[in-house]
Amino acid sequence: MVSIAIDGPAGAGKSTIARQAAKIMGYIYVDTGALYRAIGLFTLENHVDVTQQDQVEGMLSKMEIELAFFEGEQHVFLCGKDVSQEIRTPEVSMAASRVSAVPAIRTFLFDLQRNIAKKHSVIMDGRDIGTVVLPDAQLKIFLTASPEERARRRYEELRQNGATDSYEEVLKDLKERDYQDSHREIAPLRPAEDAIEMDTTGLSLQQSVDRVIALIKERLP
Fold this sequence. Notes:
By secondary structure, the chain is of the alpha/beta class. Helix content is 52%, strand content 17%. It has a 5-stranded parallel beta sheet with strand order 2-6-1-7-8, sandwiched between helices. The chain has a 3-stranded antiparallel beta sheet with strand order 3-4-5, with helices on one face.
């Protein structure tokens, strides 16, 4: 099986680029951030305080998260409900960043992510795939872009989905999430030592996908 890890900050284009590259290469695409978003959504809907260990333990004991793949597309199910669209709001993004700093939650998802990679050739994206989840991945890519570029992309995505957040609000939220992700004690956001860093500022989606495909073909002939 082939494992490719794509990490990077929020809004760097990881999910879209990884999804298209996986489709071209015939691999399974795994968006691990969606798993944390699903838990973030659960905490918001059920008023769970993730700083309280007893509440976290109670949540994990009754929460069910599943990934399903329909024609190569990943769908996230939370307690039997497809929440693939609901987990894409800025509020859920911030909640996902909070829950990702909780060791018990990371452990809860760790085996699920690794088991998928054992059964399929995957392109998996997230914050700590190359450093923690798949440290032996054959190819590790760290995608980034300027905060302004990433906020613009996220803003356009939210507008297309009917959200009314302003660009300034999106940029503020993104910078806050960058800080949370890079300063957490457990698996902070950083490139793996053997990762290839790729800045997508100014690149079109197609140009970014083409670069990733070129790296895959170069490193995994």
